Amino acid sequence: MKVPYINLGLQHQKDKQRILTKVSELLDSGMFILGDEVKQFEERFATLCGTKYAVGVANGTDALVLALQSLGIGKGDEVITAPNSYLASGSSIALCGATPVFADVREDYNIDPVQVRKKITDKTKAIIPVHLTGRPAPMDEINMIAKEFNLHVVEDAAQAVGAQYKNKAVGCLSDVACFSLHPLKNLSAIGDAGIMTTNNKEIYEWLLKARSHGMKSRDECEFWSMNSRLDAVQAAILNIKIGNIKEWTERRRGIAAKYVQELGHLVHVPKEQAFEKSVYHTFIIMTAHRDALQKHLHEHGVDSKIHYPIAIHQQDAAQQLKSSHDAFPETEKQITQILSLPVYPELTDEQVNHVCAQVKSFFKSI
């Protein structure tokens, strides 16, 4: 039996005709950038996150850059984030002219508030907690530290559409939250796309201008900025797909529960707390036998990935950073043991059972 790590084609089968019809309508309308589809998606996404405002942009990295800039962060400032995330969590800080500073993570892969506190200096201006794997970061502790030191908080919620922390959706737990809508994400466009959420009207109004060259009208530019507008075709497709997000989330959670039940005695599996609702963008196990297990799974038709084999502080681009030479023992242990199993909603029960069976088969053989 074959179990691909992801199968994006399957995701669109149910809605394929609706998508094609909508794209055809847009081709006839000539409205390709921003417009009613984008506005409708922003309103629906804000409702999903429990915020007043949402601003669609071209991708998740632009969302992080613009969010930081909306808070006045730039040259000479430091921003603390986790080293085990996708590299954009760190690169976005550098792209603003600020300095990324890394703080180690906990066993749940999310940033450790104890380590964050140790990294604060008089140059620190913000914290970017990452809801890695779709599991909420410890936002109460992060926000408490931010309040104590007068810091901003920007949620990197790229992997966490629909996740909840203490009955609140991620996206409403900070000054600004940033989401990627890349094809691999739980809610995805058919190309790059991103969105930011906030409850702050001033930030919202600045972001609307900042995503479009800093223009306050068709002919007037208030400040220099990038061009990062969400196009109408992607928004229209997202407007169709957002209706499936609850169903997809519950399927991911069901697959995750099966893995926990079947494999928890063999490998380290996520242990969700009562106040969390994870959305399992990835389902990551840990084992000292990672490489051999991955080879065994591959030989038996199961594709798996490593998210991520090289931490941000280990990247060549980060080597000029003082923080990149610090010790991050939890992150550095995890990257030798983590393995992501398939967890997308279109997996059949038979495929999930096959994954479980092959993991069990491996551990019987060693």
What descriptors fit this protein?
Aspartate Aminotransferase, domain 2; alpha/beta; seven-stranded mixed sheet; three-stranded antiparallel sheet; globular; 366 residues; 2 domains; Aspartate Aminotransferase, domain 1
Quick structural gist:
By secondary structure, the chain is an alpha/beta fold. The protein has helices at residues 8-11, 16-29, 36-49, 60-70, 88-95, 113-118, 139-149, 201-210, 232-241, 245-263, 290-299, 329-334, 349-365; strands at 53-57, 78-81, 99-102, 124-128, 152-156, 164-165, 168-169, 176-180, 194-198, 276-277, 283-286, 338-341. The longest helix has 19 residues, at 245-263.
Mean pLDDT: 97
Q: Give the N-to-C terminal Cα separation.
A: 23 Å
Q: Regarding CATH, which class of the largest domain?
A: Alpha Beta
Shape: globular
CATH architecture of the largest domain: 3-Layer(aba) Sandwich
Question: Which structural class matches the secondary elements?
Answer: alpha/beta
Q: What is the fold named in CATH at topology level of the largest domain? A: Aspartate Aminotransferase, domain 2
Unreliable spans = none
Number of E-type strands: 12
The CATH homologous superfamily of the largest domain is named: Type I PLP-dependent aspartate aminotransferase-like (Major domain)
Strand content: 5-15%
Number of helices: 13
